[in-house]
């Protein structure tokens, strides 16, 4: 049974408002904890429209981005599961908002949301507009949303629709909503292209973090998992862990090959 409105009770996680509930684990074990936590992901529900989404109080993290950017593949990679989210070569594969619950010992302490991609040329205009409105509403009104992961294929850069989305979420990011741009399919870039893509995206990210990611080369997985874990489990302000938050390595180097 998934608790849809009950906050976690194990003393180690947070409410969507960001109110901390417990101390962080030792820094060294964070990567292992984050990875184990991601692996607990289970399908929760699917919603064709916003009003079909269950109201939740646990922190929710949304994956957004152009069609075919690699959102579903990223969720499968982070959760170390082959077919949790539907990934496909064909753009437009994900058509609903799909929620996946996370949490150990059957206690859901966060939710991942895999959103349909935008910008797929073959989608009829009316459907595109409908979807843009659904997504804008979701990003602006979803109360338990604590963070957004924007997947961006660095070979295309941030598109006009990505920029529109950035504008929509900017006020919430200013209020504390977490924001990460993952430059996907980094395996397609050489070192120089990767460095350039990172610098450009950082200028556009408006204070959010930018990291390289490759499902194929398993690049950026630990960093992304740890960041998401931290978003869902913010530290208590007056603990030593809060005074010295875990530094995340900058995964700016591509795998050597
Ligand atoms: N080379 C490479 N291909 C990838 C990577 N991640 C995803 N892909 C491929 O990109 C294609 C699209 O992946 P999806 O995960 O379905 O993309 P999506 O963003 O969920 O697409 P929609 O659901 O249509 O919005 C698939 O063929 C994946 O195998 C990656 O890191 N490297
Ligand atoms: Mg998808």
From TrEMBL:
InterPro entries, alphabetized: G_ENGB_dom, GTP-bd, GTP-bd_ribosome_bio_YsxC, P-loop_NTPase
Residue stretches of biased makeup (Low complexity): 1-21
Record keywords: Cell cycle, Cell division, GTP-binding, Magnesium, Metal-binding, Nucleotide-binding, Septation
CDD domains listed in its UniProt record: YihA_EngB
Keyword Metal-binding: yes
Region (Disordered): 1-28
PROSITE patterns recorded: G_ENGB
Named cofactor requirement(s): Mg(2+)
Residue ranges constituting the EngB-type G domain according to the UniProt record: 57-234
Domain of life per record: Bacteria
Record family assignment: Belongs to the TRAFAC class TrmE-Era-EngA-EngB-Septin-like GTPase superfamily. EngB GTPase family.
Function noted in UniProt: Necessary for normal cell division and for the maintenance of normal septation.
NCBIfam families with a match to the protein in the record: GTPase_YsxC
Protein name: Probable GTP-binding protein EngB
Species annotation: Rhodoferax ferrireducens
Lineage: Bacteria, Pseudomonadati, Pseudomonadota, Betaproteobacteria, Burkholderiales
